[in-house]
Amino acid sequence: xxxxxxxxxxxxxxxxxxxxxxxxxxxxxxxxxxxxxxxxxxxxxxxxxxxxxxxxxxxxxxxxxxxxxxxxxxxxxxxxxxxxxxxxxxxxxxxxxxxxxxxxxxxxxxxxxxxxxxxxxxxxxxxxxxxxxxxxxxxxxxxxxxxxxxxxxxxxxxxxxxxxxxxxxxxxxxxxxxxxxxxxxxxxxxxxxxxxxxxxxxxxxxxxxxxxxxxxxxxxxxxxxxxxxxxxxxxxxxxxxxxxxxxxxxxxxxxxxxxxxxxxxxxxxxxxxxxxxxxxxxxxxxxxxxxxxxxxxxxxxxxxxxxxxxxxxxxxxxxxxxxxxxxxxxxxxxxxxxxxxxxxxxxxxxxxxxxxxxxxxxxxxxxxxxxxxxxxxxxxxxxxxxxxxxxxxxxxxxxxxxxxxxxxxxxxxxxxxxxxxxxxxxxxxxxxxx
Length: 434
Fold this sequence. Notes:
This protein is an alpha/beta fold. The chain has helices spanning 2-14, 18-31, 36-48, 52-65, 70-82, 86-99, 104-116, 120-133, 138-150, 154-165, 171-187, 191-204, 209-219, 229-238, 243-249, 254-265, 287-290, 304-313, 324-329, 351-360, 394-403, and strands at residues 274-279, 294-301, 318-321, 335-340, 361-373, 382-384, 390-392, 406-419, 422-433. Among the domains are: 1-100, Serine Threonine Protein Phosphatase 5, Tetratricopeptide repeat (Alpha Horseshoe); 249-433, Rossmann fold.
């Protein structure tokens, strides 16, 4: 009878009925508080609901009852990893693998950890072990292809992704795979195949914002002043969980450049005296140096996935999921400082953002942001690159800043990150509302 109740609770859980599933798990635990399986499932559920500490407590209770609970080891490791407790996560993944050498999820997750450490040979070994047990593990195929891409092994990466398309996957995973294939075609200087990939994508999903945007980036036709919000949201939601590791591997420097300017500008200010907006906060990488300066720190981003990661850092007083311009439109004379690290490379025309940011700022407030540099000539002053981001000219930045009423203190040239193992040149802009 109890096993039937457990099965029913699991079904509710799998269907996404978290409230009913949680109540069912608790009901079972009332009569059998030492049911390790149910404690494990309830821990997973609480974690899914955002109750991370409670989820970890329940997983620990599961393992206290049954230390050799493989799924419990894997699940608590997942929670530790999400909360940046990597060492504890690794210990539990390895224990799960020791208990069951064919436990696919711990093997895969160890591959992810080793990849983040740049231990690529070890990561490859873990991923290949997963694929030896399940050749159709689409997430593993994507992860291995991503690693090969990062290492410059474009042909094998492309082979893996094309193989992946032959297996059943979610609509979102299929779109992510098509996006990766298109980008690899461009890395291999095969623009025709990239166009064919995005055209196929639009055939499968007519009007898809990502495929439309990337096709415009390749052809140079129908270039928007600003991308469809759905494209930006989908892009960052799709890799929120691995975003920080990806940027670390690209030697991402935009936050450090902004930090240097902030420390110089506000070294005489009282600590914790500024109202600050992190515009396009992502996972909150700028929060570490902004928090000590702020009396109130607000982060705004389109991606719920990114904001979930930012929340885990516990640095922001408020995190808001909203289009940046829409948020600024309702914020008048609120901020002493607005920073934006590599968000405006997803804007072509900066005019509206700059006008709205100025009215959202207190008189004398500062705006500090980065964009990618375009050295060519364009009719608009900005260019949509084949990778899908915009670059801007120095002349355009100077003119649009002044037209928006800002006093420009400086426009510095800076390296922002690596792309294909080459520096991406950008501008670091410092301006004041007069």
